[in-house]
Every structure is written in structure tokens, then in C-alpha cells.
Amino acid sequence: MVFPTKATGLSWTWTVLAGMVTFTPCGAALAGDASHKVAAGRLDAPTLTALIDQAIQARLSSEKVTPAPPADDAEFLRRAYLDITGVIPPADKVAAYLDSKQPDKRARLIDELLASPHYGRHMGDIWQELLLVQRDIFSRGLPAEPLADWFAQGFNSNKPWNQQVADLLTSTGTQQQNGATTLFLALRSRDKLTDTVCRAFLGIQLQCAQCHNHPFTTWKRTDYWGMAAFFAKVDDGAPAKLFKGLTPNVVEASTVRTKRLPDSALKSSPRFLGGQTPTLNSNDPYRPVLAQWLTSEQNPYFAKAMVNRVWAQFFGRGLVNPVDNLRDDNLPSHPELFDALARQFARSSFDVKYLVRAICSTQAYQRSSTATKESAEADVPYVSMTIKVMTPEQLFDSLATVLGPPEHPKKGGGKKAKAPSPVSRAGFVEFFRPGEGADQGAYPAGIPQVLQLMNSEWTAKISAFVNRTVRGDRSPARNNEILFLATLSRRPTAAESRRLEEYFQANSSNPTKAYSDIVWALVNSSEFTLNH
Questions:
Q1: H helix count then E strand count, the chain
Q2: 528 to each of 123, 349, 396, 449, how far by Cα in Å?
Q3: Residue 73 neighbours by CB distance under 10 Å
Q4: Which of these, 16, 91, 380, 529, has the minimum number of CB atoms within 10 Å of its CB?
Q5: How far apart are CA 66 and CA 203, in angstroms?
Q6: What is the pTM of this model?
Q7: How many angstroms separate the CA atoms of 122 and 151, rounded?
Q8: What is the sign of the dihedral through the CA atoms of 157, 161, 167 and 169?
Q9: SS3 252
Q10: For residues 375 and 385, is the Cβ–Cβ distance under 8 A?
Q11: How far, in Å, CA of 62 to CA of 15, rounded?
Q12: CB atoms within 10 A of CB 247
């Protein structure tokens, strides 16, 4: 079969012969073999990696664009650490990796990072932020960490994504018993739940159909409120329970709840988005029926939505942009690749680590962020690696890796919920959090955030870091190299070494202050706060 590509004018041929699939980009000259034979059905990660690279290279070749060169080991190491585990590598790991002669050390690194508990924690941060962005005023004081911890356990154990989402959507109990219920305690109305579930797990902006038929898609008000009806029985007992000092408990009530409905609400029976109305017993729970449909391999949106989000996490932009706007008139940059990735993700039993491993092993992911003049001027995606701004969580954890965690503030008395302290991780994240839908390639922080970073408690920790890191029996050049390894995950260039030595010699009467000034400059540099 031949599928034309609207975006590029290319076409792709998928031929099934003797149980093998031959993948061939038609009319595009690839370096090396122009076709790749793989086993029918599920592809292994290396084969999926090759398929990704062929599809991206075909687009580059058709546009006669030469991509950026491969990233050097230091650039790749720091990028992989930040993208997979959400934190920069420690200095000893950097030195060992840069000095290693193992030919497969990049593949080994990817496996090592996916096995790290920091992988799940980073994914938990991402999904907690994504799902709780619309929390209401009541839930501002609700701790978000239980949801992040719940996701971290699932990602670290590599629980299939469809099972994770199904467990989340059907969760019951208190927040202490089941961190997944944080979703329903934070988003306490059908409309907020519908908006968030459709955007996060289906990649669909359905909220425009809440009050009127969507002006740019086929979604109708009946579609919106049909989906919202699946949450009609969710009951948490809050805030009444909180006012009495009791613990909210998420349950599936036996009857439909009529509270907290907006004026735009439309009376509707539960109905799958763009599909049929299931036959439901009014006494049975509704959410398990929704979860089964939403996470099905046959669902046309579920696998694509996750593939697009994971792709954007690592490349800084989705195959479809905006990442949560999958619709017919918003074409992917590489349509056939997008379809193939979604199929393979579903056939892998929704194995997220499999998808991450395949993406991070590609030539496209391992390209330098420093584009050549030709590639910089080309309006073609993935010609070089996108430079991404560290998330607040990445920035906090990376500063803590270098300087040590800040002191925990003393807890005050009383039961009244208080805003997170700015020196806590939660307070730091709240202070540096960008606006909803912020561009990963744009620096969102303003003057208050910059001043906070330059004059915060982190600055007070620099001298202690210097005292335990530099040694008087080492040369200034060696000490400066260690400081670079710890902060920028690379060794200084010859020019940088000369300038640092000159600065140190000019301030050698107070070595601790001289080295502290160097560290202050490094951690406040754009190179430190950017993921490149």
C-alpha cells in the first residue's frame, strides 16, 4: 500500500512479504540502505529507532537539508539525564562517562537512566503538573505529592500506560490510601475532569464544546456532556468533611450527583466521544466503562496522545503541535511515522520505557543543539536538537545535586493549611512555574525569578559546596575542571581555563571567595538553566 504525505509530498510503501514488513520512503534518497526489513507485528526498540531515523532523514533529504552534527558525549549525557531523570548528572558520573571508551556507552546510559528511581519521579512530576493545572480554589492547599508519587511507582515498575490510566480514572479511597484520588479531589467538577482527561489522555481540546458546538471541529455539546456524564457519580464529601476535620474519601456514588454543575451543563447520558452510547445499569459505576473505552488499543486517540507527549518531552515539540490538539486540520510533521509509533506503542502493551528507549537511541535525538548555518535557516523540524528551558523541578533538583538541598523550614503550629515555603521544593516550583501552555523553547521567568535565583538561599550554600569540593593540593586548573563537571556537565575549554586561572590568580588571597564567585557565575548562567 502507498500512503501519500500531505506535508512533504513524499509517500511511503509498506509491503508485507513472507511475514516481513519492508518500510521504504519513495522518492527520497537515504544514506545507506533505503529500506528496512522488520518482523511483522511488534518491532523491537532498535528497529523502531531505525524506522524513526529513516522517516526523519527522508524529510530532510527531500528538502535538501543537512542536519546538525551528532552531539558530543558531554552534551548527550546532560541532555539524557535531564530528559529521562529530570536532574543533571553528578560530577563523578560525568568524568567516568567522558573518559569511557565503550562503543555502546550511550545505549548503556539510556538503560541505566530508565532503571533509576529518578526516572519515575521525573515522570510523576510531569504528569502531576499536567493533570492538576486546573485545580480549583478549594484544592490549592491540597498536597500534590501523593499523585506524583503514585505515578512514580507506576513508571518505575513500567506498569503499562493503559493500566495506569485505567487505575487513575477508577481510583477510590482517601488521598493517603490511594494517591491517584488526588485527581478527583483537585478537580471537583465534571467539566474540569472532562477538560483535563480529554486534553491529557486523548490529546483533544474539548472544552470549547462545553457551551457551544466547537467552531473548528466536529465536536458538539452533546459530545462534551456525554463524556462529562461518566463522572456524574464521583463523590468526595469535601469540603464539608474538611470543615469537620474529616478526611475526604473518593467513592463512586450509587446515584448521579447534581452538585457543582455549571450553567452551561447539558443533561446527557454517558456517551463515548464521537461514538456510541453504552448500555449502563444506573446502579453500577460509570467510570470503569469510560476507562475501558478510553485505554483500548482500538481507541483512535489514546496511543497517539501519549506518543505525542513523550515525543515532545524529548524533542521540545510534538509530531503534532500544539501537543494536545489532535484534529484533522492540524497535521503531524511526519504523518506516517506518527501512525507507526502509535501502532507500535499499542502493540508493545503500552510500554513507555520501550518508547523512550527507541526515541533516545535515534540519531535525531542525539543531534547537537548547535545547528550549522544551513540547518539553522531551514524550516524543517528535527534538523537539530531543540534547546529546552529546565522545568522548575529540574532546576531545583539540579541545584540540590550541585549545592545540596536547602534547609527545611521549621513547621509552624496550628492546623490551617499554609502556602509552601519558597525554600521548599513545592514553593520553588510554584514560584518558577510557567503559565499554562508555555512554549518549552521560550524562557518564561521574569525579573523576580532571576533575582530569586541569584540571591536565594542557594547562594548561601555555595561557599560550603566549594569547601567540600576544591582542594588546596590540586592546581587551580584541576579545581575549576571539577566545578565545571559538577555544574555544566563538561570540562572547560582551553580559553575558559585560561580566563578562570587568571581570575583565580587575581583573587588568590581569598581562594574560597574566588572559587565561590566562579560557581555563582556557573549556576546562574544560561548554560546551566537550559537543557540543550
A1: 25, 8
A2: 21, 37, 12, 15
A3: 17
A4: 16
A5: 32
A6: 0.87
A7: 9
A8: positive
A9: strand
A10: no
A11: 22
A12: 13
